[in-house]
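Exercise 3.2. Students should predict the tertiary structure of the chain below and write it as structure tokens, then compare their answer with the key that follows.

Predict this chain's 3D structure.
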Amino acid sequence: MWKSTGCRVIRGGLPTGTVEGVGNSFGGELKVSVKLADGKIEEITILEHKDTPGVSDPAISGIPAAIIEAQSTDVKVVSGASMPSKGIMEAVQNALDNANGVVKEEVALLEDPDVLVVGGGMAGMVSAITAAENGAKVIIFEKTGKLGGTFGGSTLSGTNTKMQEENGITDDSPERFFQDFIRLNEGYKEIYPEAEYTWNEDLGRYYAEH
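Answer key:
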């Protein structure tokens, strides 16, 4: 299956030669090489990526071919490999920008933050949101270039949500959500039996109920 996404369309003439570009995928930075000739994209090679083999393969084989055929980075992502798909599109667009001498706009940094959150997964995002809601200036450091962590792959974290209601799921509750946390944490104990592991029940219940 394929799904549409929004990337810029290639416009204007392109210089002849080979350029490199980088983008962000699920596993981190992804690098491509783009060969240009006669104002068109002739070849795209994935130079480096850190995504899971097998999962990312359909995107790695399909997205470059789709971009070349469309002569555009506005192509459809591969279902089940959306992050690698978008990472390749972003990297190719970055290469085209490099070829055309487009300078990326600098993003203004927040100065003198009150709170620094290391890791943009579920815990980090909740911590950052809570701090911001209480008036703090917050910066999140996330190495992968995407937020969500293990919850960034279309995982639903909540109870009695609109999505559940739309799909006829009416038997959920904060207590069931909390018990699911307990189940997940028991799994960590099995994986890392040598580690000392303490479950903050009060914090877990607060998250499940809010």
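Discussion points: Residues 115-209 form one domain. Residues 82-99 form the longest helix (18 residues).
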